[in-house]
Amino acid sequence: MAIVVGHLSTAEGSEALGAAVAEARRRGTELVLVTGSPDGASSELDALAERLAGAGVAHRVVPGTGDLADDLVRTAAESGAELIVIGLRRRSPVGKLILGSGAQRILLDAPCPVLAVKP
């Protein structure tokens, strides 16, 4: 079992990572970090790996294909994930009627529960 989270260099991505680390620690399970692209910035990934090691969380990094929604759903299915963690943007009153297309695809296609957090 694992907790799956995507890596994005945004406030939403940072919040999702923090929540995923907390869940992995609480559940005593591995954290699977999916990068946003196949060539994720190695220095940034090294810093993340150091952060995760410092948090005492077993983890591994999976390169993405560029479609983070599909990558998260696929990785969750392949790893038998017990949870996917995603970050959501704050939206205007009109925007609240429509969920982001990536988040919607994850929620509809995920093989496990999805935890959505926002900064």
Plain-language structure description:
This protein is an alpha/beta fold. It has helices spanning 11-27, 42-54, 68-79, 101-109, and strands spanning 2-6, 30-34, 59-62, 83-87, 114-117. The protein has a single domain (2-117), classed as Rossmann fold, CATH 3.40.50. It is built from four helices and five strands; from the N terminus they run E-H-E-H-E-H-E-H-E. It has a five-stranded parallel beta sheet with strand order 3-2-1-4-5, sandwiched between helices. The chain is globular, with a radius of gyration of 13 Å. The two termini are 26 Å apart. The mean pLDDT is 86. Pfam families: Usp. Residues 44-118 form the UspA domain.
What's the structural blueprint in terms of helices and strands?
Blueprint: E1 2-6, H1 11-27, E2 30-34, H2 42-54, E3 59-62, H3 68-79, E4 83-87, H4 101-109, E5 114-117
Parallel strand pairs: 1-2, 1-4, 2-3, 4-5
Helix pairs in contact: 3-4
In short:
By secondary structure, the chain is an alpha/beta fold.
**Which stretches are poorly predicted, pLDDT < 50 over at least 5 residues?**
none
CATH architecture: 3-Layer(aba) Sandwich
Q: Given the structure, what is the number of helices?
A: 4
Mean pLDDT: 86
Spatial separation of the terminal alpha carbons = 26 Å
Rg over CA atoms, rounded to whole Å, is 13 Å
Structural class: alpha/beta
| The CATH C-level class name | Alpha Beta
* CATH superfamily descriptor: HUPs
How would you describe the shape?
Answer: globular
| Residues in β-strands, percent | 15-25%
- What is the domain total for the residues? 1
Helix content class: 40-55%
Biggest sheet character: 5 strands, parallel
Number of strands: 5
> Could you please say which CATH topology applies here?
Rossmann fold
- Strand-and-helix sequence, N→C? EHEHEHEHE
Strand order of the largest sheet: 3-2-1-4-5
